[in-house]
Design brief:
This protein has 171 residues and is α/β, with parallel strands linked by helices. 40% of the residues lie in helices and 22% in strands.
Length: 171
Amino acid sequence: MQKIIKIIILFIFLFVIGIFYISLTRDTNYNTSSLINKETPEFKIISFDNSNFYTRDDIKKNNYTLINFWASWCAPCKIEHPILMKLSQKKNLMLLGINFKDKEPQAKTFLSELGNPYDLLAKDKNGKHSVKFGIYGIPESILVNKKLMIIQKFVGPLSVDDYNNIIKIID
């Protein structure tokens, strides 16, 4: 009986070591290059105030649109918010904010305290739209041109370098 217990403990130990090894060697960088130069997926998403829906036709109206997935509970979303506020001042860039699996009162407080950079504001309560756009986590942003082509995808909070890259593209 003791021999069986020792074998079981050995297998459990080897299993844990194997999982640990896999987690250390796994590539955690997401390959977003497969999305570049692909057409934006079809979508129909409800506005934040439930008054209407937004679709790809709303993106066609602008030279460039930055689609930003965010939530009030997301600490990195607060970090990138000043950059979104600066981007909101650019005339040839529309910002579509998609609030991800958030509670409406907290999202409203977030925007009232930090400012609302979005031209269009929508909500993705169940995460269905984030899946369509290949979102791994938030914040993530997707830069789209007037032809509905994805130009660039930003995983994580937008940085000053990301801001500069966006400005180079849209100007």
